[in-house]
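Exercise 7b. C-alpha cells:
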C-alpha cells in the first residue's frame, strides 16, 4: 500500500504571514536546516543593527548590500522552487503560494534597506529600515516561514521518491514469490537487484539527513534487515525452486519475504513519520530511563515543593520496580544479582517513604531543620537508585559477556551443517532443540541489555538484535531440515550457510554493542567527547600572564553562532568516519578523533558552554588543534609510503594543504589582540580556520579508506560497519560520509550475483 508523503510533511496549510513560523512546520532533516542557516544569519544582521543618531555612508552601504543580497538569494531560490512545482503537480499550488510569499518578502526587505542613496534615511517621505523596524521584522518572519515551507515541500519530493522506489521493490518481490522456473527467476531477480540498489541509495541519504537520532537508529536497523535478507531471499528462493514440494523450504522462503516486507514498511513509517492506521508508537520504558526521570523529579523538590504529587512519585518508582522483575524473574540472572536487586528495591521503597514524610512536613512548615532533613532524604533516595542502576547493569552485562563467550565457537551451527549433509534427521532435530535454547538465552540477554543501554539509539539496537535472533533461529532450523531431507543438494547447503552467517554476524555485533553499552555507563560515550588536555594559562606560555581573559557577550556569541553550528555538523561527520576503523589505536584515527573533540569544545564555546570559559581558553585550544592537525599530516605522509596507487599524489597534496592550514591557524591563535573588537575578530578567525580544517578532514578520512580498499592493505584496519551503528550498514566494500552516496546494503556482492547469474544450475 502506497503511503502519501503529504500526510507527514510537517507543513500546515494555513498562511504564515506575520507569524514567527508556521505552526505546522517542522524541520526534520539536516539539509533543510543547513540551507536556512546563512539566510537566518543575514536577516539577524539586519534586524539587530544598532540604531545610532549618526550613520556613516559605510554603514548605510553595508545595510543596503545585505538587503540586496537577501533579495537576490531569495529570487534564485524561488526560481528553483517554481521549477520543482511545475514538475510536481500535486504540490504546485502550495509551492507556488510559498514562492510568491518568499519573493514578496525578499522585495520588501530590499526596499526597506534601500538607504545608501538617501540624504536622510530616516525621512518620513521614504519608509526604510530606520523608520519601520516592525515592517522589517514582519517581512523577515514571512520570508523565513515561506522559505522553510518551500524547503519542506521540496522534501516531500524526496519522500515520494522513496515511496515510489519501495513500491517498485514490493511489486517485483511479488513476482519473485510466484515464479516457477529458474529462467524466469533469474530475469526478475536481476531487475529486483537494480531496484534494491536504487532504494539503498535513497534511504541511505535519507538516514544521514535525519536529525532525530532515534529515527536514524530505526532506519539503520531496517536497512540492516534488508541487507541480510536480500542474500537470504536469493538462496531461499533457489532452494524452493530446486525442491518445490519441500515444506520446510517453503517455510524458509516465506519467512524471508515476510521479514523484508516488514522492514520496507518500517522505512516508510520513518520517512513519512506515520504509523499504520494512525496508531502511536509505544516505546518500551527501560529501567535506565525510568531511574533518570525519577531522580530528576526527586531533585526538583529542592527548587519547588509543590510541582508534583507524592502519588506521582510513588507510581514512577512502582513502574521502575516492576521492570526490575525482568531481572529477578529471569532464569539466567545469578542468585547473587537477584538477591541484591530485591534488597535494593525494598530499600528504595523505604527511602521514598522517608522522603515523602519529610517533604509533606516541609510543605506545611519550611524550617531550616526540615529543609536539611529533606536534602538528606533526597540524597539517600538518589544514591539508592544509583546503586540499583549499577546492580541491574552488572547483571545484564555479565550475563551478556558470559553468553557471548560461551557461544563464540558456534558449535551448534557447525553440528547442524554436518548432520544436515549426512541426512541425519534425528541428529538435526537434537541440535535444532539446542539452537532453540540458545535463541531463548540470547533473546533474554537482549531484553535485559535494553534496560541498561543508556541511550535511545542503543535501546533500539537491542530491540533489533532481539528480533534478529527471534526470527533467524527458526529460519536456520527450517534450512537445516531442508538440507537433511536433501543432503546432496548444494543449493540447500548454501542456503543453510547464509542463515548461519547471519546468526554469527549478529553475535559478533552483540560484542560490539556490549562494549558500547559499557562505554555509555562509564561515561566514555553517548555524549559528545570533550577534549580535556587544555593547557592552563600562565603555565605553558609566559606571555599569557600579561593578558586578561575575556568572555564573549551575548551579541558576539550570536554573531559566531552560524560558524559554531557548521563546526558542530562537521564534528559529527568526522566522528562518523573515524568510528568505521576497527583499529582505534591507528594514528590517523587517534589524531582525527582528537581534532574532532577539540573542535566540538570550540563549538560549545560559541554557545557559552563547555570547558572553554574565556577567549584565551579558545586560543589555547586552537593552538593544540593545529598541532594535532600537523601530527595527522605526518601520519598521512607515513601512510602514503605504504600506498601504491594513482591517488597517492592526491593524498600527499591534501596532507600538504592540511599542514599549511594548521600553520595559518597557529599564527592566528598566537597573534596579539588588544581590545574587545580585535579579540572578537581573532575569535571569529580561529573558529573559521578550524572549520576549514575540519572540512578538509572530512575529505581526507574517506580518501584513506578508499586507498586502503584499492590496495587491499587495510583488511585488518577497516571494519565492516555493524548494522546497529547509527547511519552505517554492514557493507564491507562501501564506506561513505553523510554528504556522499550512502552504502548500498552490501549490494556489491548482490550486483555480482546479478551479473553472473546467466543460469542457475540445479544441483
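Sequence design result:
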Amino acid at each position: 500500500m502506497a503511503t502519501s508523503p503529504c500526510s507527514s510533511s510537517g507543513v500546515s496549510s494555513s498562511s504564515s504571514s506575520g507569524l514567527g513560523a508556521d505552526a505546522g512546520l517542522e524541520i526534520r532533516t539536516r539539509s533543510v536546516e543547513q540551507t536556512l542557516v546563512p539566510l537566518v544569519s543575514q536577516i539577524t544582521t539586519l534586524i539587530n543593527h544598532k540604531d545610532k543618531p549618526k550613520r556613516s555612508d559605510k554603514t548605510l552601504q553595508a545595510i543596503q548590500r545585505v538587503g540586496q543580497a537577501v533579495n537576490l538569494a531569495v529570487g534564485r531560490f524561488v526560481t528553483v522552487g517554481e521549477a520543482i512545482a511545475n514538475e510536481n503537480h500535486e504540490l504546485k499550488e502550495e509551492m507556488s503560494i510559498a514562492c510568491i510569499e518568499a519573493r514578496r518578502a525578499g522585495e520588501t526587505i530590499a526596499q526597506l534597506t534601500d538607504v545608501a542613496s538617501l540624504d536622510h534615511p530616516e525621512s518620513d517621505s521614504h519608509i526604510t529600515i530606520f523608520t519601520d523596524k516592525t515592517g522589517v521584522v514582519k517581512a523577515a518572519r514571512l520570508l523565513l516561514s515561506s522559505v522553510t515551507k518551500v524547503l519542506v515541500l521540496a522534501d516531500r519530493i524526496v519522500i515520494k521518491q522513496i515511496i515510489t522506489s519501495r513500491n517498485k521493490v514490493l511489486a517485483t518481490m511479488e513476482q519473485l514469490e510466484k515464479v516457477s522456473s529458474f529462467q524466469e527467476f533469474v530475469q526478475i531477480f536481476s531487475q529486483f537487484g537494480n531496484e534494491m540498489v536504487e532504494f539503498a541509495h535513497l534511504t541511505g541519504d535519507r538516514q544521514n539527513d535525519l536529525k532525530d537520532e532515534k529515527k536514524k537508529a530505526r532506519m539503520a536497523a531496517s536497512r540492516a534487515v534488508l541487507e541480510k535478507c536480500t542474500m537470504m531471499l536469493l538462496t531461499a528462493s533457489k532452494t524452493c525452486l530446486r525442491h518445490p514440494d519441500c515444506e520446510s523450504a517453503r517455510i524458509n522462503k516465506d519467512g524471508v519475504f515476510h521479514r523484508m516486507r516488514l522492514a520496507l514498511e518500517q522505512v516508510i513509517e520513518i520517512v513519512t513519520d506515520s504509523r499504520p492506521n494512525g496508531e502511536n508508537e509505544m516505546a518500551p520504558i527501560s529501567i535506565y530511563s525510568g531511574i533518570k526521570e525519577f531522580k530528576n523529579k526527586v531533585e526538583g523538590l529542592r527548587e519547588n515543593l509543590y510541582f508534583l504529587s507524592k502519588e506521582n512519585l510513588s507510581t514512577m518508582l512502582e513502574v521502575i520496580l516492576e521492570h526490575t522483575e525482568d531481572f529477578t524473574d529471569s532464569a539466567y540472572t545469578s542468585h547473587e544479582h537477584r538477591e541484591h536487586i530485591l534488597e535494593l528495591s525494598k530499600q528504595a521503597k523505604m527511602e521514598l517513604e522517608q522522603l515523602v514524610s519529610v517533604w509533606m512536613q516541609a510543605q506545611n512548615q519550611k524550617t531550616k531543620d526540615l529543609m536539611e532533613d529533606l536534602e538528606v532524604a533526597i540524597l539517600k533516595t538518589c544514591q539508592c537508585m544509583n546503586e540499583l542502576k549499577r546492580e541491574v547493569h552488572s547483571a545484564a552485562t555479565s550475563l551478556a559477556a558470559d553468553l557471548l563467550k560461551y557461544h563464540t565457537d558456534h558449535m551448534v551451527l557447525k553440528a547442524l551443517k554436518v548432520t544436515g549433509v549426512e541426512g541425519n534427521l534425528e541428529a538435526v532435530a537434537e541440535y535444532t532443540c539446542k539452537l532453540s535454547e540458545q535463541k531463548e538465552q540470547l533473546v533474554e540477554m537482549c531484553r535485559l541489555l535494553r534496560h541498561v543501554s543508556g541511550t535511545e539509539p542503543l535501546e533500539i539496537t537491542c530491540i533489533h538484535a532481539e528480533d534478529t535472533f527471534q526470527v533467524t533461529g527458526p529460519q536456520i532450523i527450517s534450512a537445516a531440515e531442508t538440507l537433511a531431507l536433501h543432503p546432496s543438494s548444494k543449493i540447500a547447503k548454501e542456503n543453510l550457510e547464509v542463515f548461519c552467517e547471519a546468526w554469527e554476524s549478529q553475535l559478533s555485533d552483540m560484542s560490539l554493542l556490549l562494549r558500547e553499552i559499557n562505554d555509555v555507563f562509564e561515561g566514555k560515550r553517548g555524549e559528545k567527547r570533550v577534549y580535556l588536555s587544555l593547557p592552563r594559562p600562565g603555565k605553558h606560555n609566559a606571555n599569557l600572564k600579561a593578558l586578561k581573559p575575556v568572555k564573549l557577550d551575548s551579541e558576539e556569541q550570536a554573531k559566531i553562532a552560524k560558524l559554531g553550528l557548521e563546526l558542530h555538523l562537521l564534528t559529527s561527520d568526522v566522528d562518523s568516519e573515524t568510528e568505521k576503523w576497527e583499529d582505534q589505536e591507528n594514528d590517523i584515527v587517534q589524531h582525527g578523533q582528537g581534532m574532532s573533540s577539540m573542535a566540538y569544545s570550540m563549538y560549545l564555546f560559541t554557545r557559552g558552554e563547555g570547558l572553554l570559559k574565556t577567549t584565551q581558553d579558545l586560543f589555547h585550544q586552537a593552538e593544540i588543534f593545529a598541532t594535532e592537525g600537523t601530527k595527522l599530516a605526518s601520519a598521512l605522509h607515513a601512510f602514503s609510503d605504504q600506498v601504491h596507487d594513482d591517488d597517492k599524489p592526491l593524498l600527499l597534496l591534501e596532507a600538504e594543504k592540511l599542514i599549511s592550514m594548521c600553520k595559518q591557524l597557529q599564527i592566528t591563535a598566537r597573534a596579539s589582540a588588544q581590545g574587545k573588537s580585535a579579540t572578537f575578530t581573532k575569535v571569529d578567525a580561529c573558529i573559521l580556520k578550524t572549520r576549514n580544517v575540519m572540512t578538509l578532514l572530512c575529505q581526507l578520512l574517506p580518501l584513506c579508506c578508499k586507498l586502503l580498499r584499492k590496495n587491499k592493505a587495510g583488511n585488518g584496519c577497516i571494519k565492516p560497519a555493524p548494522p546497529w551503528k547509527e547511519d552505517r550498514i554492514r557493507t564491507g566494500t562501501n564506506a561513505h560520509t553523510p554528504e556522499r552516496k550512502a552504502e548500498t546494503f552490501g549490494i556489491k556482492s548482490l550486483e555480482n550475483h546479478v551479473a553472473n547469474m546467466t543460469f542457475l544450475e540445479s544441483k
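Instructor comment: Confidence is low (pLDDT under 50) at residues 1-24, 119-125, 526-548, 713-763. The two ends are 38 Å apart (CA to CA).
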